[in-house]
Design brief:
Length: about 500
C-alpha cells in the first residue's frame, strides 16, 4: 500500500524526523541524493526495531517517491536552506507534482525566502513551511514546531505535527521527556502551533535563534567571570550551573553547559572546555535576527551583542596580538570569602538580563507582525517553546502567563510579574556588571541588557541633544516639547542670536 508521507533529505535532522514519524505510526518513503544517508536511515531503523517489520522505506528518485506516496502528496523537505529548497521543488515539479500537493520546508530558511517561494510556486504546488527547533534529539523524540502557510495544508499537517512534537505536562508546565525509539510521548500538550501566514513561522524561529544566541552568550559571560575573576575550575562552575538549574534559571542551555563543564577530555585528562578553540561559528540565524531588528527599528541590543561576540571571537590572532599590548585594570581575583556573594550576583544578573532578552525578542516579533499584518499569538509562541526547542526553560511559562493576562502587552518589561522580578533582583545585576567592568571582563550581553532596561524605563533620554546636533550640521529639524510634535523647527545656527524658524 502507499505511504502517507514522502520525505526528502535524510541528513541528521531528516533521518531523525523520519524515525519520529515512523514511531508515531506514519508510513514514510524517504529519498536523498546521497545513498549512504538512506542506508544509514535503514540501518538505524533496523537497529531500533529489533525483530519488528521495517518502519521506513527508501526510494531512488523523485518520480519513484511520488509513485509510492498517496495523492494528493505530502512531501516534507529537510535540506540545507537556500538554493537546495528550490532545486528540490523544481525536481518534484518535473517528476509530476500537482497543484494540490503539499511541500513542507523544515530547514532553517530565511523567512523572506519562504514568502518568495510561496508566490513562485502558486498554482504549481502548495508551499508550506515548518521551522523546527530542538536539534537532532528534538527531531527524533519531539521538537518544537513553528508551522506557517496555507491553512488548508495546515489542516492536513496538524495531526502529524502534534504527534511528533515535544510535549509539555499541562500541570507542571515541564517537558515530558522520553527518549525511547518506538515508544513516543503521546500525552501532554504538543509544542506545535500554527503561527500564521507563510513566512511568519520562520520569522518566529529566527527570533527564537536570536534569543538562543543571547542566552548562550550570557551563560558564557557568567562562566567567564567565574573563571577569570573567581578563579573557579570548570568542574566547580558546573556545580554552580547545576544548582542554578534547580531554580528560576532552569533551562536546557544551563543544563548542557553544566554537562560540558563537568566533562574531562579522555585523551588529555584536561577539562574538555579547555581544549576547545575559542572561535565561535554561526550559520546566520542570529545575524538575521539582529539585521531584522535594525531594519524594523526594534532595539534588540543583547541579541546583536551576542552576534558581535561571536565575530570578535573569530579574530583570535588579532586578539593574541592585542593581549600583549593593550592594558586593562590591575585588580586581583575576588577574595574567597566574597565568592558566594559574587556567584549570587551573577545568577541574578543572568536572570534579569534574560528577561530583557526575551523582551527584545518578543518586541521584535510584535513590530514585525504589525508590519506584515500577522496576528501572532505570543502566549502560544511562549507555550510551544516550553519543550523540545533549544531555549526551553521554566521561565517560558511565566512569559506565556504574562501574555495570557494581557494579550496586548506592549513589552514584557511592563508585565507586573516581570516588573517585580527585575525590581527585586536588579541590585545584584548592577553589581555583577559593574564588577566585571572594573575587572576588565567583557560582559556585552549582560551589560547591554542592563542599558536596555535603564533606557527603557527613562521618560527622558539625551535624544534632545542628538536632535540638536542633527539640526546643527544638517538642518534636519526637530520638534519642541511645548508644541505639537508634527510642527518642525530649525535653528539658524550660523546667524547671530541663533533664531529659530518653524519649517
Ligand atoms: C534549534 C537550533 C538550530 C541550530 C542553529 C543555530 O533551534 O534547534 O537553533 O536551528 O543549532 O543552526 O546554529 P548556529 O549557532 O550555527 O548559528
Amino acid at each position: 500500500s502507499l505511504c502517507d508521507i514522502g520525505f526528502i533529505g535524510a541528513g541528521v535532522m531528516g533521518k531523525n524526523l523520519i524515525l519520529n514519524l515512523a514511531d508515531n505510526g506514519y508510513r514514510v518513503c524517504a529519498f536523498d541524493l546521497d545513498h549512504h544517508k538512506l542506508d544509514a536511515l535503514l540501518e538505524q531503523d533496523a537497529r531500533e526495531r529489533g525483530d519488528q517489520p521495517a518502519r521506513v522505506e527508501t526510494c531512488n528518485s523523485y518520480t519513484e517517491l511520488l509513485s509510492r506516496v498517496k495523492a494528493p502528496h505530502l512531501v516534507i523537505l529537510s535540506v540545507p536552506a537556500g538554493a537546495p529548497v528550490d532545486d528540490v521543488c523544481n525536481k518534484l515539479l518535473d517528476a509530476g507534482l500537482k497543484a494540490d500537493d503539499i511541500v513542507v520546508d523544515t530547514g532553517n530558511s530565511l523567512w523572506t525566502d519562504s514568502v518568495t517561494r510561496c508566490k513562485r510556486y502558486e498554482g504549481k504546488l502548495i508551499f508550506f513551511t515548518t521551522a523546527v527547533s530542538g536539534g537532532e534529539v528534538g527531531a527524533r523524540f519531539g521538537a518544537s514546531l513553528m508551522p506557517s502557510g496555507d491553512p488548508y495544508a495546515w489542516a492536513r499537517i496538524e495531526p502529524i505535527w502534534h504527534a511528533i512534537a515535544a510535549k509539555v505536562d499541562p500541570k507542571s508546565g515541564q517537558p515530558i521527556e522520553r527518549f525511547e525509539p518506538g515508544n513516543p510521548v503521546t500525552e501532554g500538550e504538543p509544542c506545535a502551533a500554527y503561527i500564521g501566514p507563510i513566512g511568519s513561522g520562520h520569522f518566529v524561529k529566527m527570533v527564537h535563534n536570536g534569543i538562543e544566541y543571547a542566552d548562550m552568550q550570557m551563560i558564557c559571560e557568567a562562566y567567564d567571570v567565574m573563571r577569570s575573576a573567581l578563579e573557579m575550575t570548570p568542574a566547580e562552575i558546573a556545580e554552580v550551573f547545576r544548582e542554578w538549574n534547580e531554580g528560576k534559571l532552569n533551562s536546557y542551555l544551563i543544563d548542557i553547559s553544566a554537562e560540558v563543564l563537568a566533562t574531562v577530555d579522555a585523551e588529555t585528562q584536561q577539562p574538555l572546555v579547555d581544549i576547545i578553540l575559542d572561535r565561535a561559528g554561526q550559520k546566520g540565524t542570529g545575524l538575521w535576527t539582529a539585521v531584522s531588528s535594525l531594519e524594523v527599528g526594534c532595539p534588540a541590543p543583547s541579541i546583536a551583542e551576542a552576534v558581535f561576540a561571536r565575530s570578535l571571537s573569530t579574530r583570535k590572532v588579532l586578539r593574541g596580538r592585542a593581549a600583549k599590548k593593550l592594558h586593562g585594570p590591575d585588580i586581583g581575583p575576588v577574595p574567597e570569602a566574597e565568592r558566594a556573594e559574587a556567584i549570587q550576583q551573577l545568577h541574578d544578573a543572568l536572570y534579569c538580563a534574560k528577561i530583557c532578552v526575551y523582551a527584545q525578542g518578543f518586541d521584535l516579533m510584535k513590530l514585525a507582525a504589525r508590519e506584515q499584518g500577522w496576528q501572532l499569538n505570543f502566549a502560544e509562541i511562549a507555550r510551544i517553546w516550553r519543550a523540545g526547542c533549544i531555549i526551553r526553560a521554566v521561565f517560558l511559562q511565566s512569559i506565556s502567563d504574562a501574555y495570557e493576562r494581557d494579550i496586548k502587552l506592549s513589552n514584557l518589561l511592563l508585565d507586573d510579574f516581570f516588573i517585580e522580578q527585575i525590581a527585586s533582583n536588579q541590585g545584584n545585576w548592577r553589581r555583577a556588571v559593574a564588577d566585571a567592568s572594573l575587572r576588565g571582563i567583557p560582559v556585552p550581553a549582560l551589560s547591554s541588557a542592563l542599558s536596555y532596561y535603564d533606557a527603557f524605563r527613562r521618560e527622558s533620554l539625551p535624544a534632545n541633544l542628538l536632535q540638536a546636533q542633527r539640526d546643527f550640521f544638517g538642518a534636519h529639524t526637530f520638534s519642541r516639547v511645548d508644541r505639537p510634535e508634527n510642527e518642525k523647527y530649525h535653528v539658524q545656527w550660523s546667524e547671530k542670536g541663533r533664531p529659530m524658524v518653524k519649517v
